[in-house]
Amino acid sequence: MTLTDANAVLLNCISHVLLPGEFFTCSAVHTLTQAQIDAGLYVNQASAASSSPLTTSLSNEVTTYIAPHPELTMFKSGALSLDKSQVDYTITATNSGNVTLQNVTITDAGAVLDACAPRDLAPGAHYSCTAHHVLTQGQIDAGHYLNVAHGSSSYPEQSVDSNEVDTHIDEHRGLSLYKTGTLSADKTTISYTITATNSGNVTLY
To answer: What is the share, in percent, of the chain residues with pLDDT greater than 90?
Structure first.
């Protein structure tokens, strides 16, 4: 008597001679594919055969259910550009669950994304996009810029924000004055021009 399983690996399962009423047991193992995990179940059936007399038999079907745990995580980092005019970001979406996430999309309402096409992510996979935000004078005056990115998938449906990135903007106050004078033609008065210039990076009131 021989046991077989076309969709599992039998462990130390040798043939046996069985008298009426006798039985023997074998163990088997099947490594799940990602497609089977995504499907949420796996159906398997074993078979037995004897050579004399010739007999075959199929076992019952065993349906194993696999609980889905979809999870999308987002991480964002940012730094001021060299000329301090904008914040440059890197945004990473990671599939932290056990099922494939379809059409994973990165968005950022407070920055302009560079080329960043949606894609499917297998468990453990990730992809990154870059983005930038040109600072307004009001944001420079405030001394910081707070930004959050967002990630989503169409199936299984996920929607999650990234960590907050609060970029500090150094304040550089500067006021310069320049004065010129011109003597009148009759040499009795001097006319002056005085120019005040904001030479810093914040608004002066």
So the answer is: 87
Q: HSE (CB half, 13 Å, CA atoms) of 17?
A: 1
Nearest to 161 by CA among 112, 116, 110: 110
Three-state SS string over 15-33 comes to CCCCCCCCCCCCEEECCCC
Burial of 39 (0-12, 13-18, 19+ CB in 10 A): middle
Query: Which residue matches tokens 């810093």?
Result: 200
Do 59 and 48 form a contact (C-beta atoms < 8 A)?
yes
Asked if 150 and 105 count as a contact pair (C-beta separation under 8 A), the reply is no
**Smallest Cα–Cα separation from 121: which of 39, 42, 38?**
38
What six digits make up the tokens of 182?
Answer: 């011109």
Coil, strand, or helix at residue 5? coil
**Is residue 160 a contact partner of residue 153, using CB atoms and an 8 Å limit?**
no
The string of DSSP codes covering 111-169 is SEE-S---EEE-TT-EEEEEEEEEPPHHHHHHTEEEE--EEEEEBTEEEEE---EEEE-
pLDDT in tens, 95-142: 999 999 999 999 999 999 999 999 999 999 999 999 999 999 999 999
For the CA atoms of 96, 98, 104, 106, what is the dihedral angle to 10 degrees?
A: -10
Tens digits of per-residue pLDDT, 36-92? 999 999 999 999 998 888 899 899 999 999 999 999 999 999 999 999 999 999 999
